[in-house]
Task: structure prediction
Amino acid sequence: MATTWPPDQLTRIGDANELHVQSRRGDGTLNSPRIVWVVRDGDELYVRSVNGRDSAWFRGVQRRHAGHIRAGGVESDVAFTEPAADDNAAFEDRLDAVYQAKYGYSPTAVDRITSTAARSATLKITPA
Result:
């Protein structure tokens, strides 16, 4: 299992405005896709649930930590992990800035994706 993205896929996914995410059910099939925003921080990709930890897609990926994404012409099975808690506030502040830089054309939506609830629902995505 690869734990890092090939450079071309990292760029294509990181540059995409929308990412389609699907959680995996217990029987291995995929749930319906949900559209989320994706950001790149260095060589890593992150998503947040704008509705926090209670959203259906977030709960789905938390059950199995596995799913499928599509963005920037890339499709991949992925693993979802919560970022390490080391200096979490500084990390979340940095991601807030990345969200603002990428999606600042929609200030109201950026306010929601950088809210306390959304920050608590940050996930790193890696190839499975």
